[in-house]
Model the fold of this input.
Amino acid sequence: MPSLLRPPDLPGPGQVPRPPAAFEDLNLFQLLQDLYGADELGVAPLWYQPATEREIHYRQAVVRDLQSPPVRETADRFVRGMRGVWSLLATARRRHHPVQQQLRLVSAILELTQVVEDLARGLDDGAPTSEGFAGVAAAVRAYLVSPGYLRMRDEARTVRAQLARVRFRVEIHGPAVGVGDPQDEPDYAAEVRRTFERFAAVDARVVIERPEARADWDRVEASVVERVATLHPDPFAALDTFTARHDPPVDPLLSNLERELSFYLPVLDLFERLAEHGLTGTLPVVSPDPTLSLPALFDVVLAAKQARDGVPTVTNDFSLDGQERIAVVTGPNQGGKTTLARAVGHALVMACLGLPVAAGTTAVVPLIESVRTHFPQAEVPQDESGGLRDEMRRARAMLAGANARTALIVNEIFSDISLPDAIELSGRLLRSVSDARALCVWVTFLDEIVALQPVVSYVAQVDPRDPAIRTFRVRRQPPDGRAHAMALARKHALTSEAITARIRS
Done:
């Protein structure tokens, strides 16, 4: 089966992987919720397994096709159309009367044929160039001329036409309702239309609701249909035979295509909305080269929320060049350090899925096979091992098997122990990270660890006129030596803000 996610000669996905532990720390579950909502199609698990280098380039070509308006419009129409088909099928199964179920199924199949034929025309007109879309277009064309599809389409049209020719008369005498042949009565509907024609609006849109589209038939409606079926057995027998033969009607080719398009389209929609707020998303260069360059980087989860709230998002430039593997981020509390670290994590995860990243157009990302995190966790009262032991246990798990294709996001580790111990343990951990050649972003209040290993220093900035004001800018520069002092001041409520608040109270 052709795929928009992987080349045809690569094996398909095996067992659905478990969600990576890092997704919680990086707020990526929130991003998946924003993108896919209830996720009826099961798209979120496609994020759990990083792609190979070949798959990444394959997917990026698909994204470039989807950035072409004709292809994008075709894809959007197809996904919307399939949503309508599934809705019709779902309501068919909720109906209690079998004939109403069958009529709803015919409507769903006719809608499906329209959706698929529109897809084929759109792909022909849009002329996508990626290997993925070429395979899909060829498969859709083959499906449209397959005997199974042609029989389903033609039989559905025949059944609908036969039912449309059924005529009957309803006689109502008080509480009694009878059904019979129409005989030679005039077309009263036509007479009513002629009578009220002069009152009709010029551009009025007439909506005719088919009986099967309404909620469950009541007892009288069901009885009328059953008697009509007795008067005209052939069309209803054809309906029964047809629906038994073609349920379920959706070919796996179409359901798989809908799921894979739904992997890409919400991401593109999100970046288009963010572009209205001056934020750039781009397909990065992804290669085994260790260089990481993320100009105008931003936290895509935070940016989506701030865009909804009308709050501007600050971007930052982040890079690790050549042999640089570890970035240590220091600076004042709530100054954007963790946001920057999460943004790097988002970019690495999304780039290695073949998706756009929240950065400028010259973004370059190394091929990463695993993104791991170490963030503070709430202490469990029943856990007698202590917070430090838990931190060490999780640090060892994070480093297990780490290599040059592992990315580590470390946030405020060893923040609850003495300064000498924190520096000593941080140094040991940094040496292990360096030995593994892992890429690492380390957020800390310990300016001293910058001198322990060959690292790159980033510092969160404050307003030079008022250090209490955070700018959320993070710059590549040596640490200013105040991060730990500020951490102690905050811990003991000795910051200028805390002291001022106590004086005023």
Remarks:
- The chain has a mean pLDDT of 91.
- The first helix runs from residue 22 to 25.
- Residues 39-163+248-260 form one domain.
- The chain has two domains: 39-163+248-260, 277-504.
